[in-house]
Design a protein that fits this description.
The complex is a heterodimer of chains A (301) and B (250). Chain A is mainly alpha-helical and 301 residues long. Chain A has one domain. Chain A is built from 13 helices and two strands. A two-stranded antiparallel ribbon of chain A has the order 1-2. The relative contact order of chain A is 0.18. Chain B has a six-stranded mixed sheet, sandwiched between helices. Chain B has a four-stranded antiparallel sheet with strand order 2-1-4-5, with helices on one face. In chain B, helix 8 links the parallel strand 7 and strand 8. In chain B, helix 3 crosses helix 6, helix 3 packs parallel to helix 7 and helix 6 crosses helix 7. The radius of gyration of chain B is 19 Å and the shape is globular. The N and C termini of chain B lie far apart (40 Å). The chains are: A mainly alpha (301), B alpha/beta (250). Chains A and B meet through helix 6, helix 7, helix 8 and helix 13 of A and helix 2, helix 3 and helix 5 of B.
Chain lengths: 301, 250
């Protein structure tokens, strides 16, 4: 029986990977969003409300929370169509802060078994008991998280191999050239935003049910900054990049006791060093291409 | 097919293009020459819609382009290259050409794997032919950023041609090329014309311009100072003055 602490770390890596992938999808299409935590948070609240207050099954709550997150992301995507660069980053951050501050005001409680349950502003939202009520063990829930993560990865790999994924990367490399190639950026920017919102949303609902307690403060800017940093550390050349970033941060920095108190210092330093020496991460496009061509030669031989 | 009517573009106080008129017939190769800063590249940017004109009209095949966004102009049939090479460095040569092809069947197939297209997709032969045309047949899987300078120039030309334009704007395609490369370029431009493209060629390399164009327009300080056949332009006094300065014994 693997111990529960280790499992918690592993499942945490899985859930945070989802928001990292969400930020990654926007990064490769050339947009730095500081606001993916908003969609993570929206879905965490919506999903938890669905199971805890309305008695929905988890899969339906997942779909509901993520769709709501995708809807919000699409809305923000439409609003921010005409801005890019720093302005886009600030607009997404502003929206995320709006969501977080609204959650402080959100009170929606229902009496269940003689107890008031539901989000209660700054007090947070506890008693998200789906896991206990359904006798799901930590191991089983971890497997569920990784099952969903694998599905998302599979889906992203398909996208990256398709023309759609190529157009996302084109927008990231040279938006003007993309336009003079006859491609309408509006369509692709909004598509990327919606997909990214949905992926962050999956992580959010899973997160709420794993920790059984959420509060607005969890979905602050630092979550979004981390989500961005994971892709930038691991690399923007492959979907595995952000996962490597998460593994380095949560798997190593947070779990190794020696650097416990200095985690943020080490992490911040790492991000700064990466941006100077490897601005597109460890596995950037060139290194991924290089590795792929080596692999191809190796298979042929 | 293209009619530019008293087109002007101001950047703040700088008048980059002033009241320019230019008519282009289908199938022609038109040269646009002029000293640095005379408004040649601005003209290309205005026709391709990179920025809006201050005043004037651009009529392309009977349709005004003014209200169209850059990507809509490509759909209408206007493609361009850039003075400083612009490719997608992170995509392979084949992918650069593939995404440039922007027909309905590709848009519907957006979710389908690139590998399938590379092996047996409906556009495979067409793109392979374009690689052949650019002399890049064996470099299809190379990253665009790994190509040599001359190869990148050739890919850029093919990339613009891949959108199947009826009007192709070439912004100094011969810049930085040696003699042999220019001869190659000359051949390729003629081939594109044979395929039915009308071409506006902006260039400093006079051998190329004089040899290939049907007509030449000369710009100076944003205005057209002369237009005519290459031989006539070579003899034109005001053109010589624009390039060499006024001579003392006039």
């Amino acid at each position: 029986m693997p111990n529960d602490y280790l499992l918690t770390v592993i499942s945490n890596i899985g859930m945070i990977s989802l928001i990292a992938l969400s930020a990654y999808l926007l990064l490769i299409s050339g947009e730095i969003s500081f606001g993916q935590q908003a969609y993570f948070g929206i879905s965490a609240y919506a999903g938890a409300i669905a199971t805890t207050l309305w008695g929905w099954p988890l899969w339906l709550a997942l779909l509901f929370g993520s769709s709501l997150a995708a809807l919000a992301a699409g809305f923000v995507g439409l609003l921010t169509l005409r801005i890019s660069g720093l302005y886009f980053s600030i607009a997404t951050l502003a929206f995320a802060e709006m969501v977080r501050l609204s959650l402080f005001k959100l009170t929606y409680q229902i009496e269940i078994d003689g107890e008031l349950i539901g989000p209660n502003g700054a007090e947070g939202f506890g008693e998200i008991r789906w896991i206990f009520d359904n006798d799901v063990s930590v191991l089983e829930y971890t497997l569920l998280i990784y099952g969903i993560l694998l599905l998302v990865l599979f889906f992203l790999v398909l996208i990256e191999r398709s023309r759609l994924g190529m157009i996302f990367r084109m927008l990231g490399q040279d938006p003007l050239l993309t336009r003079v190639q006859g491609l309408n950026p509006v369509r692709y920017k909004v598509t990327a935003a919606i997909l990214a919102g949905f992926i962050a949303g999956l992580g959010g609902t899973l997160y709420a049910h794993s920790f059984t307690y959420i509060e607005p403060q969890i979905f602050n800017m630092m979550l979004g900054v981390h989500a961005l940093a994971y892709g930038l550390i691991g690399g923007l050349g492959t979907v595995l990049g952000p996962l490597i970033g998460v593994a380095i941060d949560i798997g190593f920095l947070e779990s190794v006791r020696v650097i416990q108190g200095y985690r943020m210092v080490v992490f911040g330093g790492l991000v700064a060093l990466m941006l100077i020496f490897m601005p597109r991460g460890i596995f950037d496009e060139k290194r991924v291409y290089w590795l792929k061509s080596i692999a191809r030669r190796w298979f042929r031989a | 097919m293209l009619e530019v009517k008293s087109l002007s573009k101001n950047f703040g106080g700088v008048k980059a293009v002033r009241e320019l008129d230019l008519a282009v017939n289908a199938g022609d190769i038109i040269g646009v020459i002029g000293p640095n800063g005379s408004g040649k590249s601005t003209l290309v940017n205005l026709i391709s819609g990179v920025f809006p004109a201050t005043a004037g009209e651009i009529i392309f095949q009977g349709q005004s382009l003014s209200k169209l966004s850059p990507h809509a102009r490509v759909k209408a049939g206007v493609a361009r290259t850039f003075q400083n090479i612009r490719l997608f460095p992170g995509l392979t040569v084949w992918q650069n050409l593939w995404v440039a092809r922007n027909s309905a069947e590709d848009t519907r197939a957006e979710g389908i794997s690139y590998r399938w297209f590379r092996k047996s997709g409906p556009v495979k032969n067409e793109i392979d032919a374009m690689l052949e045309f650019s002399g890049l047949a064996d470099k299809g899987d190379e990253l665009a950023s790994n190509l040599a300078f001359g190869e990148q120039r050739r890919l850029e030309l093919a990339r613009a041609a891949a959108t199947k334009p009826s009007l192709l704007l070439l912004d100094e395609p011969a810049a930085g090329m040696n003699h042999d490369e220019i001869r190659d370029l000359d051949r390729r431009i003629r081939q594109l014309r044979q395929q039915g493209m009308t071409i506006i060629l902006i260039e400093h390399v006079m051998d190329l311009v004089m040899g290939i164009t049907d007509r030449i327009a000369v710009l100076n300080f944003g205005s057209k100072i002369a237009e005519g056949e290459p031989a006539a332009i070579q003899e034109n006094k005001s053109v010589q003055e624009a390039y060499l300065g006024q001579s003392d014994d006039d």
